[in-house]
Amino acid sequence: MRARVLVRPKAGILDPQGQAVERALPALGFDGVRNVHVGRLIELDVEDPSRLPEMCERLLTNPLIEDYEIEQ
Amino acid sequence: MKFGVVRFPGSCDDVDALQAAARVADAVLLWHADHHLQGVDAVVVPGGFSYGDYLRAGAIARFAPVMTEVEEFAREGGLVLGICNGFQVLCEAGLLPGALLPNVSLKFIFRQVDLEVVRSSGAFTGSCEVGERLSIPVKHTTGRYYAPDDQLDRLEAAGQVLLRYAAGHNPNGSLRDIAGVCNERGNVFGLMPHPEHAVDPLGGSTDGLRIFESMRAHVEQHVLA
Amino acid sequence: MSSSTSSLEERHRQLGLTDGEYARILERLGRAPNDVELAMLSLMWSEHCGYKHSRRLLRRLPKEGRHVLMGPGENAGAVDVGGGLAVAFKVESHNHPSAVEPFQGAATGVGGILRDVFAVGARPIAVLDSLRFGEPSASERSRYLLDRAVAGIGHYGNSIGVPTVGGEIYFEGSYEQNCLINAMCLGLAPHHRLIRSAAAGPGNVVILLGALTGRDGIGGASVLASAELGEGDEAKRPSVQIGDPFTEKKLLECCLELLDRELLVALQDLGAAGLTSAASEMASKGGVGLMLDLCQIPLREQGMEPFEIMVSESQERMLCVATPERVSDVLGVCERWEVAATTIGCVTEGDSFQVLHRGVVVADVPVGVLVDDCPLYDLEPSPPAARLYPAPDAVLSGGESPEETLLALLRSPNIASRRPVFEQYDPIVQSRTVRRPDEADAAVLVLPDGSGIAVAIDGNGRRVGCEPRRGAAEAVYECSANLACVGAEPLGLTNCLNFGNPEKPHVAWQLVEAVEGLSEACEALGVPVVGGNVSLYNEAPSGPIFPTPVVGMVGKLPDASRAGRLGFARDGDAIGLLGPFEPSQVGSELSKLRGLAPVGELPMADAARIRILHQGIRARVRSGAFRSAHDIAEGGVAVALAECCIAGGLGASVRLPRGLDPFGEAPGRGFIVSGPAEALAGFVMIGTVGGERLVIDGLVDVAVSDLRDAHEGGLSEWV
Q: How many domains is chain A partitioned into structurally?
């Protein structure tokens, strides 16, 4: 089955990519945007979805600096 | 004394590290797919873009076959030096605390910076003086050192911060201006600046040689003696 | 069926072939070409691959030289640098893709020129870039292109571990619609590892190395598709090629090892027109035929048609030829480097280029028709009847003091410090760099025996726009001057000709004049042209870009530790002004700031005297008599003096010769040098190094720190 792992920077860690995007949007006429964070999406076909959390902990994310969310 | 410099697919500064190490001792290349360290006395994990920095810098290299032996070598007290991408690999492997994040500027930065020696006892900065300034270049996109506050407090209290960027010289937003840290035991050291690019009078500063010399002195005193 | 309801005849026009060219194809083949053949021919006979409008003209360039090992016609030129080593080098443009997507366009431009260099067996050791954009103050688009192109160059060069050691950037309204991205690469090889691309030996095996083949760059040829791709057509035929430096790093190491082990007969990189041009050129050079089986080619996309596979411009691929006995060794080396390698065909007797797909011959064209029969057109030059380039907006009124003028020049985008750009590049990986971007007028790399290689890249389009013949010659003189300032003797030159539409008589005239100017200067200095590139049709509705011949020059010095520097070195040193330096305001940076159009006669150049001047400077830099040397370029002697103060961190006190325009220009002919007074005896001494201010008697008295602030501030607001 097809799974998606959403990886986000941990709250509280400076996210200059998110800040850069947040700064750029008003310049293009998009107001009222706050709290932008930039992460990563990993999509994969898996035979055994129960192993996804372990995959995330060991390789797909760095738990010190990233949080993740699995969608199936 | 023999240094071993690991080469991953995508390593760029491996030959530079090899040449630098060869100025103070013997030096050989360690191929990523081999399961042996050729009897070296110290391992250098060099700079570059191992595996294209895919997923996260160092995230894939840390699982290379040779890293099994490097981790064992470190567990047994062997000296391991991680430079730039090598620092990233060692953090991903859990051999060093913390992680490296994108530079605050979000751009690659090359700059000759001044580092301050914070601690000079030990295998890597033993031949330096506390407070001494070393002029060494940085060149990276993902060099901002991070660890949670309480961990940073512990690192500083335990003397694991060996090098800091001098005032005004922090190029990437590293917390507490940390440029290089070692593990609790003091045998594994990682830094973002490139000491192997400060060893030749032709290039300017030779301050980077001090780190290789410290390692040789340590091995000669404690291992080969 | 879809778009193929139009007849083949109309389709040739859609593919960019003229009726005359199509008729020539019919005549040469003796029949009509099928779809696949038409696609292949339309690309091989395009301006980009066929050099239809420039090939005859380029024959004028001097190519002979005693150091030349490989001249024009191979993937890169090469010169002997002593110690059994050769330096291969070339410059290439990637202008049009960069206008579409500047990050990837610039990145793949670097990737492409790297491949050209390791295709001849040389390890890439340095990259330089010559860039042109519109005015950053006037155009958000130009700022965007600058930002992204620099990021792309850095991304590719830094990731693959080749230092970017130099370059140049000019901002002119003329380039607003047509940015220029020219990338130069130098490589190092022991003589015996240099390899040519000629395929040889019927029965030998053709092997494809590197990345998978997708639909990248197919674009225009898509009219031949036999089926609609359905929704998201555009996305399935990406017009943007994505570069992957990691794959290329592995490919590079793999190819060099294959050559070190002498496992290959021939090597060629895949660039424009992909497999079609790489394979047909290999066959043509070797006087052999080729057979390719498309089913063997590893594909990235489903259902690719034969014509797509033949013209795909997917990056990071190389083609090689090996004898049958060596194939397993070749595949073994590739496997170790994790480089995909597939046998896709063989060399044949005769002159047929045959392409098979599912057992059926889908194309069968004589090699000569693809490579040699492309028509060559004579240019029909005629000087422009009216002024081509408008006057720029004035930044200065003309009422400013000399000091205000100097600071305005230092701050101007064409002169300001490029630090915000070159800090995004790694200039030191591979540990050969002895002079970094702001330390000297040319980059210097050390060789194993302690000697040095110097390299510079130059080309002021605005001055060429004033007078193409003299302006183009100036680019050569300026490169030679840059090399002299580090103590290097020129060995060879590469050039990229960036011009407008050559079918217009005034552009044809610019081309002819520029090539003549380049040739005269090369002959006068004794520097051969070993290779280069042409980019035409850089034109907007408002007119062509400035004619922009970009020159890259490589030189040698016996002792890299004695390479020159541009900054004043020591308090008390005497400062000399060397020439004969007869500057004028025509085409100058100051005249641009004052809002003057680029018209007028450029100062005459006495080539013989320039040669002697450069030799003299070179000798005295090598001996250490000159502690600093800097050629006078944009902004004239006042700016040059300021640059020497800023770089050296030392002030100076000088008096200029009476009547000398402090901001006048004459590239390649004026120098500011410094050294012990005894060493400068016999030269025109204008003052002394010392203090913290630049004092030019009667003109300027300003703190070096103020000069530095203006200089460093200029570009940093845009980058």
A: 1
The pLDDT value recorded for residue C85 is 98
Rounded to an integer, what distance in angstroms lies between the CA atom of residue C675 and that of residue B126?
Answer: 41
Considering C339, C371, C403, which residue would you say is the last residue of a domain? C371
Q: Which of C188, C180, C123, C184 is nearest to C149 (CA)?
A: C180
User: Which CATH number covers residue A42?
Assistant: 3.30.1280.10
65-104 of B, contacting C, C-beta below 8 A: none
DSSP, residue by residue, C456-476:
EEE--HHHHHH-HHHHHHHHH
pLDDT band, very low/low/confident/very high, at A27 (cuts 50, 70, 90): confident
Of B60, B99, B106, the CB nearest to A65: B99
Tokens representing A8 are: 């986000």
Determine the residue type at C326: R
Query: pLDDT class for C395, splitting at 50, 70, 90?
Result: very high
> Please, what is the angle between helix C607-623 and helix C505-525, to 10°?
50
**pTM (2 decimals)?**
0.96
Residue of C411, C416, C405 whose CA lies nearest to C590: C405
Say if residue C292 is in the same domain as residue C428: no
Q: What percent of chain B has pLDDT over 90?
A: 96
C319 and C399, same domain (yes or no): no
Q: Which domain holds residue C358?
A: 3-54+195-371
Sign of CA dihedral B126, B132, B137, B140: positive
Chains that touch C (3 or more CB pairs under 8 A): B
B56 close contact with A: CB closer than 8 A: yes
Task: Look up C192 and say whether it is catalytic.
Answer: no
Is 90 exceeded by the pLDDT of residue C718? Answer: no
Domains in chain B, please, with CATH? 2-222 (3.40.50.880)
Three-state secondary structure of C578-599: ECCCCCECCCCHHHHHCCCCCC
Q: Which chain A residues have a beta carbon less than 8 Å from that of B59?
A: 59, 62
Q: What is the mean pLDDT of residues C266-286?
A: 94
Local confidence band at C130 (pLDDT 50, 70, 90 cut-offs): very high
CA distance B130 to chain A (A): 31
With contact defined as beta carbons under 8 Å apart, do C184 and C113 qualify?
A: yes
- pLDDT grade for C11, boundaries at 50, 70 and 90: confident
Instruction: Provide the mean pLDDT of chain C.
Output: 94
- B31 in contact with chain A, both atoms CB, cutoff 8 A: no
Contact B160, B183 (CB under 8 A): yes
**Res. B176: pLDDT tops 90:** yes
State the total domains in chain C: 2
Number of alpha carbons in the 13 Å side-chain half-sphere of residue C497: 34
- Any catalytic annotation for residue C12? no
Q: Which two tokens stand for residue C504?
A: 């217009």
Per-residue pLDDT averaged across A21-42, rounded? 93
Q: Is C217 left (phi over 0), alpha (psi -120 to 50) or beta?
A: left
Is C429–B196 a contact, with Cβ atoms under 8 angstroms apart? no
Interface test with B, best of A14, A15, A40 (most B CBs within 10 A): A14
Ramachandran region, residue C459 (left: φ > 0; alpha: ψ -120 to 50; beta: rest): left
Q: Is residue C378 part of a domain?
A: no
- Written as six digits, the tokens of B124 are 């890597």
- What is the side-by-side order of every strand in the sheet holding B188-191? B26-31, B2-7, B42-45, B79-83, B188-191, B178-182, B161-165, B109-117, B133-140
Q: What count of Cα atoms within 13 Å lies in the side-chain half-sphere of residue C540?
A: 14
Nearest CA-CA partner of B133 in B163, B176, B173: B163
End-to-end CA distance of chain A: 8
CA distance C491 to B209: 35
